[in-house]
Amino acid sequence: MGDAKWNHLKGIVLVNLATMAWASNMVLGRMLKDSIGPVTLAASRFVVAAFIFAIFLRHQSHENRRVGKDFWLLAGMAATGVVLFSPVLYLGLHFTSAVNGTLINGIGPLLTGAMAAVLLHQPMSRRQVAGAVVGFAGVLYLISGRAASFWQTARFNIGDLIVLLSVSFWGLYSVMGSQVMRRRSAVSTTAFSTLLGLPVLLLLSLWELRSFPVVFDLHMILSILYLGVVPAAGGFYAWNAGVAKLGPSGAMVFYNTLPLYGAILGITLLGEPVGLPHIIGGVLIIGGSSWAAWRPVAR
Length: 299
Fold this sequence. Notes:
By secondary structure, the protein is mostly helical. It has helices at 3-31, 38-57, 71-92, 98-105, 108-119, 126-144, 148-153, 158-180, 186-209, 218-255, 257-270, 276-293. It has one domain (3-293). Helix 1 (3-31) crosses helix 11, helix 5 (108-119) packs across helix 8 and helix 10 packs across helix 12. The longest helix has 38 residues, at 218-255.
C-alpha cells in the first residue's frame, strides 16, 4: 500500500474514531441525566479537556500560544461551542432519547453549510441544497413520529427541538472556527476557545448546583474523566488529525457516521426502542447529508 493510500486510510480511521467518541458522549449524557445537571456535566467535562489542551498548547509555536487579534472570534467560539452547545445538548437529552439526539445531529454539516453561505458568502451547490432538503425532511419525520395528530396539534418533542438548537450552536462554532484556523492551528483554536469558555461555564454550574446538587461518587468521577478525555480532548484531536489527512470536505462526509454510531450505542447500551420513524428519518438524514457532502473523484 502506497503512502498516499495509507494516509487516506489513517484519516478515515481517525475521523471515525472521533464520531464514535462523540456518539458515546450522547449516550453517556443520557445515562447521567438524573444524576448531574447539564451545565455541571459540561463544565466538569471541559475542566478535564482544558487541562489536556493546556498541555498540548505548550508544544505549539509562539504565535499559536497567544490569543492575539483572534480574541473576538475565539470568544464567539467559546460562547457557542463551549458555554452553549454541550449544556443545551445535555438538556435536550433529558427529554429525548440518545437515538433521536444522534440522528438529529446528522443534519449538522448541512446547517453549517447554510450558515457559511449566509455569513461567509460561500454558496451551497445544488447537490448540497438538495441534500439539505432531504436531511431536513428526515428531521421533521423523526420529530413528528409520523403521527397525523402531530401536524394537527404541532406538539413537538421539546427534547428534539432543544437538540436541534444545540446543533445550530455547533454550526456557528464551526463557521467561526473555519475563519480562525486560517491563521492558527486547530489545536490552538480548540484550546483557546475551551479555556475562554470554561470560566463562564463554571459560574453557570455553581448556579445550577443550588437546585441540582450532585454526589460525586466513583462512578460519576470516572464518567466525567471519560467525557473529558475521550469525547472532548480525544475526539477533537482525532477529528483534526483526520482533517489534516483527508481535507475538511473528505472528513465531513464521515461526520454523518455520528448518528449511526449513536443509534447503535443507544440501542445496545440503553435498550432504547427503534421504530419506523427512527429508520426512515435516519436514512433520510444520513443519506441526504452524505450525498450533499460527497464529491466525485477526479480521474
